[in-house]
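Notebook p. 47: complex prediction with adenosine-5'-diphosphate.
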Amino acid sequence: MQTSPAAASQASRSTRDKELRVPIIQVNGLEKTYRTAHGTINLFERLNFQVEPGEMVAIVGQSGAGKSTLLHILGALDAPSAGTVYCASTNVAQLSPREAAAFRNREIGYVWQFHYLLPEFTALENVAMPLLARGTQKTGVPGDRSSSLGWKREALAVASNWLREVGLEDRASHRPGELSGGEQQRVALARALVNGPRVLLADEPTGDLDETTAGRVFDLVERLHASHGLTSILVTHNLDMAARCTRALRLEGGRLSPLGTAHLAGLQSGSD
Ligand code: ADP
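Predicted complex, structure tokens below:
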């Protein structure tokens, strides 16, 4: 397959990341405390972990273990209570809300169990949305009609390439309600990656799909991870998928521990 300009640029950034030989994610002494009417929840036991550029790491664990919270903290959607969190060379805990939004838009591709596509927009417009948001941030657009129109045209062209990458170029004008669950998730993946992020954070991205469709979406995640030189963290309950990642970690009792291939095989036949 021909390499797109976006893929080439991401791959070259990834090569640079690897050459720098520094972890792209570095978490030290992470704690997260929620104070609720029913008491205090301490989610992490001074958590430490790091991820090298290009790794595809699975995180498994019981519901309520803190997997989503960990992704939210890495993606600057939530703040740690203690510790330091570097993601894509950025100390995420120190970002202002405005900086956090720009950081997410630039460096993080996020996909969730549900696609969260905007129902009134077409697949193409949904994919272009982060680019359009970025253009508005960049130009502060109001009044600058010609540059805004040029940017929009460019954004739609880039989004169209992404729809092709996820095999949905013939669905560009379809609204989310006219797409199957697997197609919706493929559009969501294209939208997550359209800005050329270095890090993909995926929270149960196939959790709402039947087994066959889930397998196809995971194949696509694997392919995009490799072809765009991404570093990916996937929360999943699917141990077959976890076993296909470069590393699998189990989050339990506030700690992360490595899961080897033998352990994964054992878990598959037991409960989780
Ligand atoms: P997982 O993704 O592993 O299922 P979560 O990260 O969603 O777990 O949640 C971990 C725990 O933190 C849960 O017990 C949940 O009740 C609690 N929690 C998450 N967010 C909040 C919040 N905003 N306020 C209070 N408790 C929360």
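Notes: The two ends are 38 Å apart (CA to CA). The chain has nine helices and twelve strands.
Next step: compare against the earlier run before touching the bench.
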